[in-house]
Write a structure and sequence with these properties.
This protein has four domains: 102 residues, RuvA domain 2-like (Arc Repressor Mutant, subunit A, Orthogonal Bundle), CATH 1.10.10; 193 residues, Tex N-terminal region-like (Orthogonal Bundle); 177 residues, Nucleotidyltransferase, domain 5; 75 residues, OB fold (Dihydrolipoamide Acetyltransferase, E2P), CATH 2.40.50.140. The two termini are 56 Å apart. The strands form four sheets. The protein has a five-stranded mixed sheet, with helices on both faces. Strands 11-12-13-15-14 form a five-stranded mixed β-barrel. The chain has 719 residues and is of the alpha/beta class. It is globular.
C-alpha cells in the first residue's frame, strides 16, 4: 500500500523529511500558523502555503484509505473478495479507481441486465461475447430460441436480454471507462440552448429580465477543458435556474469505434449483437455516467479556482489598512430614515448615538452640521467613517462642508456585510439595548479602526468579495475561508485584553469555546498582565497555550516580550542574549545596532535553530510591528454622481472592491462598479489579476465604454 508520506511527497515534490515532520506535527494537533512560524527547523522552513498543501493531500489520502476499508468490508460480507481484487483495491491511489473496482459489486437499483439474468439469459450472453466460433444468422437464431421460455416470449427478446447483460459487462470494464474518460478530458464540449418557454410572451417580465443576464449562453458551446471557472459556474447557475439546458458532447461515432476495437474480434452475427450492445452501453450507461463525472470534475476545478480567488480577496480585505486606536465618529448614511451617527472611543467602545437628517425629505442640513460639530468636540473625534451605501456621496460632501476646530480625516468605508453583522447574535450580545441601525453604524466605525477585528464577526461569504460563492462547494469554501481568516489573524497577532470572542476564536489553538473562557476570565479578573497568566484560563491546557501564546499580545505587561511574536519557549534564549550583551531584555528590544552585533551561531541548540533565531532578532528590532499599511484618505471625483455622468475617455479615481479571474471591479463613487477586464490591466498578457491590483487599492482608471441600459461600465487601468 502507498504510504501517506510517499503520496504527499509525490503530489507536493517537497522533501520527505519536511513532509514527515509536518505530518507528525499535524497529527499532534498543531496548527498551520504555529508550524510555519515556530517549527521552521522541523519543516525545513516550509511556508503556510506549502503546509496547507500537505494538509490537503493528507486529507485526500485519508479519505481514500477510509473508502478502501469500507469497500473491503462490504466485499467480504458479500463473500466476493478475492486475493487479486484485494490487492488492486489496496494499491489504488484515488477514489475513481476505487469506485471502478467496486462497480460490479455495488448495490444498485434493479437493472435491465438483472432482469435478463433472472430470465436465464446470462449463458446466451456468454456464448455471444466469447466469440469463440463463427455464428451465422441462423446459428444465432437457433441458439436464441432455446431461451424462449418463461418471461422471454421471442428470439428477439432473448437476444435483447443478452445484449443488456453484455452492455453492463462493457460498462464495468475499467479499461473502457478510462479510455472514455480520456476522450472526454481531451475532446468534450459543453453546449447550451435557451429553454423554449422563455421565448413565450406569457413569461413574467421579472423572470425575463433575470434570464437576460445569461443571454450569452442561450446558444453556446466551448471545450470543457478550456472553459474559465466563472463561465462554467455561470452556465451551471443558468441551468439550475431553468433558463438554459446544457449537455456534454463528444464524437459518439469515433468513441464507439474505439470501444469496438477493444471488444469485437470477428465479423459475424455475434459481432453484430455485440455492436448493438456496445452502442446501448455507450449511450445508456457509459456516456451519461462519465460525462456527469467529467462535468463534476470541471465543476470541482472551477470551484477550486473561484474559492482561491475568494480566499485571496478575503485575505487582502482582512489585512486592509487600519486607522488604529483613534476616536471615530461613524455614520450609516440614509435619506428618508436619516443618517445614524455613533461616537466610538479609541478601542471601539460605543459612547453616543443619534440620528441626523441632512438630506431630503427633511433637509435639516444646518441642524445636522451643528450636531456633528458638537459631537466631534465633545468626544474629541479624530476621524470620521461614512458607510458607502445609499446617500454615501451626499453625506461625504455634507461632512466636508463642516468647519471643524481640528483637522479631520474623512473616510468612506465599505458596508458589505454590515447588515448581516447588525442582525447577528454576536451583535445582539455586544449591544443588547440598541437596534440594528446603531449596530451597523458601530460596525462601520470599527472597520475603519481595525478591519480585521471587525470583519471576523461576519460570515465571510456575506462580505461579497468572491465570484459565484453560492454556487461552489460550500464545505470547501467554508474550510478555505476559515483558513484564510486564521492565517490573517495570526499573522497580525491579537491583543488578548481587547479582542472579542470571534477574533480570539481564530487564534491558533484557541477556538470558540476557549475564546469565551478567555473573555470570561478577563471580565472576572481584569486585564491579563502576562502570557503566563493565560494558563489560568479554564480548560486552556499546555497544548493550547503552546499553540496560542506567540500570537497573543499583552501591551504594557510584566514582560516586554509578551507584546511581541517571540514565543515564551524562546524567552530563555533572549534573556541569554541580553545577559551576554550586559543589558536588560527591555534595553535589547528596539536596539538595532546592538542586535546586529549578536552572533546567532552561539545560540543554536537542539531545540532552536538559525531560522527561529533570525525571526527572533527581526522581531526584537521592531516588536509588535503591524504588517498592515496605514489607512489613507481617498476622495472620488465630485462631479460624477450617476452612470449618466460618465463619458468615454474620462480619468477617474477609484478603489478596487472585488477581484475575479476575468478582471477586477472598481468603485468610482456611483451605484454601479466598473469592470477592468483582465485584458485592460496591462499592455501585455496578464495571467494573474492580483499581480497588478489588490483589494481596496486606490487607482486611476480610464472610462472605455458605458452601457447605461445594462448598467455596465468598462474601464482600463491608467498607469
Amino acid at each position: 500500500m502507498t504510504t501517506i508520506l510517499n503520496f504527499i511527497t509525490s503530489q507536493t515534490k517537497l522533501p520527505t523529511k519536511s513532509v514527515e515532520n509536518t505530518v507528525k506535527l499535524l497529527n499532534e494537533d498543531c496548527t498551520i500558523p504555529f508550524i510555519s512560524r515556530y517549527r521552521k527547523e522541523l519543516t525545513g522552513n516550509l511556508d503556510e502555503v506549502q503546509i496547507g498543501d500537505i494538509v490537503k493531500f493528507k486529507e485526500q489520502f485519508e479519505a481514500v484509505e477510509k473508502r478502501k476499508l469500507a469497500i473491503l468490508k462490504t466485499l467480504e460480507e458479500q463473500e466476493v473478495l478475492t486475493g487479486e481484487l484485494q490487492k488492486k483495491i489496496e494499491e489504488a491511489t484515488d477514489l475513481i479507481t476505487l469506485e471502478d473496482l467496486y462497480l460490479p459489486y455495488k448495490k444498485k437499483r434493479k437493472t435491465k441486465a438483472d432482469t435478463a439474468r433472472e430470465n436465464g439469459l446470462e449463458p446466451l450472453a456468454k456464448i455471444i461475447m466469447s466469440q469463440t466460433r463463427s455464428l451465422g444468422s441462423s446459428d444465432i437464431s437457433s441458439l436464441a430460441v432455446k431461451y424462449v421460455k418463461g418471461e422471454v416470449n421471442s428470439e428477439e427478446e432473448a437476444l435483447e436480454g443478452a445484449r443488456h447483460i453484455i452492455a453492463e459487462w462493457i460498462n464495468e470494464r475499467t479499461d473502457i471507462r478510462n479510455m472514455l474518460r480520456n476522450q472526454l478530458e481531451r475532446f468534450a464540449v459543453i453546449s447550451t440552448k435557451v429553454v423554449k418557454k422563455l421565448e413565450d410572451d406569457a413569461v413574467p417580465a421579472g423572470r425575463q429580465e433575470k434570464a437576460q443576464k445569461f443571454r450569452d449562453y442561450f446558444d453556446w458551446n466551448e471545450a470543457l477543458n478550456r472553459i474559465p471557472s466563472h463561465r462554467l459556474l455561470a452556465i451551471l447557475r443558468a441551468t439550475s435556474e431553468g433558463f438554459i439546458r446544457q449537455k456534454i458532447e463528444i464524437d459518439d461515432e469515433k468513441t464507439i469505434s474505439k470501444i469496438e476495437e477493444r471488444i469485437i474480434k470477428s465479423n459475424d452475427a455475434a459481432s453484430k449483437q455485440i455492436k448493438l450492445a456496445i452502442e446501448d452501453s455507450y449511450k445508456r450507461l457509459l456516456l451519461p455516467a462519465l460525462s456527469n463525472e467529467a462535468l463534476s470534475a470541471a465543476k470541482e476545478k472551477a470551484d477550486e479556482t473561484a474559492i482561491n480567488v475568494f480566499a485571496k480577496n478575503l485575505r487582502q480585505l482582512l489585512l486592509g489598512s487600519p486607522l488604529g486606536e483613534k476616536r471615530v465618529l461613524a455614520i450609516d448614511p440614509g435619506f428618508r430614515s436619516g443618517c445614524k451617527v455613533v461616537c466610538l472611543d479609541a478601542q471601539g467602545g460605543l459612547q453616543h448615538n443619534e440620528t441626523i437628517y441632512p438630506h431630503p425629505p427633511k433637509n435639516d442640513s444646518s441642524g445636522a452640521m451643528k450636531k456633528i460639530s458638537s459631537l466631534a468636540d465633545a468626544y474629541k473625534i479624530e476621524a470620521i467613517a461614512i458607510g458607502n451605501g445609499t446617500a454615501s456621496r451626499e453625506t461625504e460632501q455634507f461632512i466636508k462642508r463642516i468647519q471643524f476646530k481640528n483637522a479631520m480625516q474623512v473616510f468612506v468605508v465599505s458596508e458589505a456585510g454590515a447588515s448581516i453583522y447588525s442582525a447577528s447574535k454576536i451583535a445582539r450580545d455586544e449591544f443588547p439595548n440598541y437596534d440594528v441601525t446603531v449596530r451597523g453604524a458601530v460596525s462601520i466605525g470599527r472597520r475603519l479602526q481595525d478591519p480585521l477585528a471587525e470583519l471576523v464577526k461576519i460570515d465571510a461569504k456575506s462580505i461579497g468579495v468572491g465570484q459565484y460563492q453560492h454556487d461552489v462547494d460550500q464545505s470547501k469554501l467554508k474550510s478555505s475561508l476559515d483558513i484564510s481568516v486564521e492565517l490573517c489573524v495570526n499573522s497580525v497577532g491579537v491583543n488578548i485584553n481587547t479582542a472579542s470572542v470571534p477574533l480570539l476564536s481564530y487564534v491558533s489553538g484557541i477556538g470558540p469555546k476557549l475564546a469565551e473562557n478567555v473573555v470570561s476570565y478577563r471580565e472576572e479578573n481584569g486585564a491579563f498582565s502576562s502570557r503566563e497568566e493565560i494558563k489560568k484560563v479554564a480548560r486552556l491546557g499546555g497544548k493550547a497555550f503552546e499553540q496560542a501564546a506567540g500570537f497573543l499580545r499583552i501591551k504594557n505587561g510584566d514582560n516586554p516580550l509578551d507584546d511581541s511574536s517571540v514565543h515564551p519557549e524562546s524567552y530563555a534564549v533572549v534573556s541569554k542574549m541580553a545577559k551576554d550583551e550586559k543589558v536588560k531584555v527591555s534595553e535589547l528590544i528596539g536596539n538595532k545596532a546592538l542586535l546586529q552585533k549578536i552572533n546567532l551561531e552561539k545560540y543554536i541548540s537542539e531545540k532552536i535553530g538559525l531560522p527561529t533565531l533570525k525571526d527572533i532578532l527581526t522581531e526584537l528590532e521592531k516588536p509588535g510591528l503591524d504588517i498592515r499599511e496605514q489607512a489613507k484618505v481617498f476622495t472620488f471625483n465630485q462631479n460624477i454622481r450617476t452612470i449618466t455622468d460618465l463619458q468615454e475617455g474620462q480619468l477617474l479615481p477609484g478603489i478596487v472592491n472585488n477581484i475575479t479571474n476575468f478582471g477586477c471591479f472598481v468603485d468610482i463613487g456611483i451605484k454601479e462598479s466598473g469592470l477592468i477586464h483582465v485584458s485592460n490591466l496591462a499592455d501585455a498578457f496578464v495571467s494573474d489579476v492580483n499581480e497588478h491590483v489588490h483589494l481596496h487599492q486606490q487607482i486611476i482608471v480610464k472610462v472605455l465604454e458605458v452601457d447605461v441600459d445594462r448598467k455596465r461600465i468598462q474601464l482600463k487601468l491608467h498607469k
